[in-house]
Amino acid sequence: MYQQHSGSRTFRGRTSSRPSYGGRSRPQGGYSGRRPGGASRVPRQRGANIHYSKFIQKAETVEEATVFTPVHTFADFLIDERLKKNITKKGYVTPTPIQDAAIPLALQGRDVVGLAETGTGKTGAFLIPLLDKVLKNPGENVLIMAPTRELAVQIADEFKAFASGLPLHFALAIGGANINMQIRSLRQGAQFLIGTPGRIMDLMDRGEVNLAKCSNVVLDEADRMLDMGFIESMRKILGTMPAKRHTLFFSATLSRDIEKLIGDFLTEPERISVKTQDTSKHVDQDIVRIQSGRTKFEHLAELLRTGEFTKVLVFGRTKHGVEKLFKLLKAEGFKAESIHGNKSHGQRQRSLKLFKDEHVQVLVATDVAARGLDIPNVSHVINFDVPGSYEDYVHRIGRTGRAGQRGKALTFIE
Ligand code: AMP
């Protein structure tokens, strides 16, 4: 059952008897030098199977000579002129590599596999062609699935800017936030549903979302959705969508499981790869050995008191550990915030904003909570706890050294 609502198609599964009011998300005005002492003499970390040497790498002298020359300009794309104006208003002049390659293909209706991380402009790569599609075909609906609430919110924020003043609406479906507000947005007729698999399933179970006629889907950070155990939900959700659909698939890594998903979910996709290794070249990476008799916390506090550590993202392994570290930092008088899965969506957004806006010096985070976040000017990433995998390490340090800037990453070793 797919409701016709106010003359336009929506995700609704049943007819609302309530009047429409508020709560609607309206588009408005909307990532080697020296190996000291020989790598083989560096011991392995207990618990995590990563050689310490992998945490040591000098940032390479930034070679600004490798300037990307796009094939297209935004003006070349055969997209709605109003959308082009909003792209210009957002300050985008030239497409990023992923945009340059993906937008024309998506505009032709091709399925696309984009190997790219946050920071490459992938959000625009999928939003621009899909917003244009819905503008040209008002009956179309789009489902955008992302692994974390924060990433979904970032996508929604980009959406607002691109869709400013246009008859395009979205509903957000994320856990930790009021579901009734989300239901209201859906009932009011959004063409775009942006959310995390768990909450989307919840809304489907409640009969609020029906995707039988939604033939466009974006799977953002598909590798992370898989890591986070969303595979069954993803299969169920996609299983309710038309077999003939337009699928845009983004992943930072390409594993066997990911290849399987691509084979199952996409039809003759075009593949685009944006090198993500380059990010780490901008990051000075080193280990910090904690002397016996001292604690990691004492060392962290000492570093934070030097003038250099201005905007510091500290990673802990567990939610509990992150919260404990955050409280210790506060008790020592540091301006700090924390983000992890035990906090509500509102609390996480608040903490993130305070850090982004540089009202606090330190943000303590778990891997999951910090994944995919686009935070400008992070001066240092500190691995207070060693990451569980090398992939997590790469994602962590990718939070600094962005946009051609140099960053520093330190890994504490006891
Ligand atoms: P994303 O990988 O989509 O999270 O984008 C990373 C950052 O780059 C965001 O702050 C975007 O607003 C920005 N961005 C994306 N595309 C462009 C572009 N063509 N020109 C300038 N900035 C961009």
Written description of the protein model:
It is a single chain. This protein is of the alpha/beta class. The protein folds into two domains: 20-64 and 278-413, P-loop containing nucleotide triphosphate hydrolases (Rossmann fold, 3-Layer(aba) Sandwich), CATH 3.40.50; 66-273, 3-Layer(aba) Sandwich (Rossmann fold). Helix content is 34%, strand content 15%. The protein has 15 helices and 15 strands. It has helices at 81-89, 97-107, 122-136, 149-162, 179-187, 197-205, 222-227, 231-239, 256-265, 278-281, 296-304, 319-331, 345-356, 367-370, 390-397, and strands spanning 4-5, 8-9, 112-115, 142-145, 170-173, 192-195, 216-219, 246-251, 270-273, 283-289, 312-315, 336-339, 362-365, 380-383, 407-413. The strands form three sheets. The chain has a seven-stranded parallel sheet with strand order 5-6-4-7-8-3-9, sandwiched between helices. Strands 10-15-14-11-13-12 form a six-stranded parallel sheet, with helices on both faces. Strand 14, helix 15 (390-397) and strand 15 (407-413) form a beta-alpha-beta unit. The chain is globular, with a radius of gyration of 22 Å. It binds adenosine monophosphate. Adenosine monophosphate is lined by residues 92, 95-96, 99, 118-124, 374.
